[in-house]
Amino acid sequence: MKGLLLKDFYNVKNLISYYALVAAVFAVVSVVSSNIYFFCGFMIFISVGLVSSTISYDAQDKWDRYALSSGVSRRTAVLSKYVFTVVTILCSLALGLILALALGYRQAVDFLPVVAYSFAGVLSVGIVLPCFFRFGVEKARVIYMIVIVFTVALMVGGISLFERLNFAAQAPWMLVLLAVLSVAILAISYFVSLRIYRNKEFN
Predict the structure, then answer these.
(1) Are 75 and 193 in contact (CB under 8 A)?
(2) Which domain of life does the protein's organism represent (predicted)?
(3) Which of the two ends of the chain, N or C, has the fewest CB atoms closer than 10 A to its terminal CB?
(4) pLDDT tens digits for 87-126?
């Protein structure tokens, strides 16, 4: 597992540098405008973009065939992608929370947008990863874009509704709910991806 994760991070190291630069720009924009949504929205693209790139590189290098013939189990191969995804989302969440603190956010309701957008990242990955395993990154790219637009719109609408209805007192419970839903979505998505991957042949 450790070797697979190191391989994935090594493959996307240049992409991580690029994303870090763009994230820094969005962070500055968020600080100047006192609006964290710019930064949080970009974090969704990072969450899905990095894992999709690892799968794309694996397909180009025919890595799956080599790994499976070398004794890597299909369960481990699929699980490594989800662990990679969780690591990137948690890093994005941590950066979002740090930025929120820098902007002077202190109440649970203030952190809700950060957690909500991280949940959007989880939801996006939960939907598109099985599609990537089934169809490949290139063929599933349209699905990927539709899911991103859908989840961003869902989060923007949900947060706006939450603020309009003045549910600030329920913010702590909402944070817990989003965390529980994130775990459930990733678990379901993992088992779906594993079933697809087990039936897939690599030539």
Answers:
(1) no
(2) Bacteria
(3) C
(4) 988 888 888 888 888 877 767 666 777 878 788 888 888 8
Task: List phi, psi (to 5°) of 94.
Answer: -60, -45
Instruction: Locate 156 and state its tokens.
Output: 């923007």
Burial 151-177 (b: 16+ CB within 10 A, else e): bbeebbebbeebeeeeeeeebeebbee
**Contacts with 83 (C-beta within 8 Å, 6 or more apart), sequence order:** 1, 5
Look at residue 7 and give its three-state secondary structure.
helix
For residue 103, report the phi and psi dihedrals to the nearest 5 degrees: -85, 0
> Is this model's pTM higher than 0.90 or not?
no
CA-based nearest residue to 53, from 16, 92, 91, 6: 16
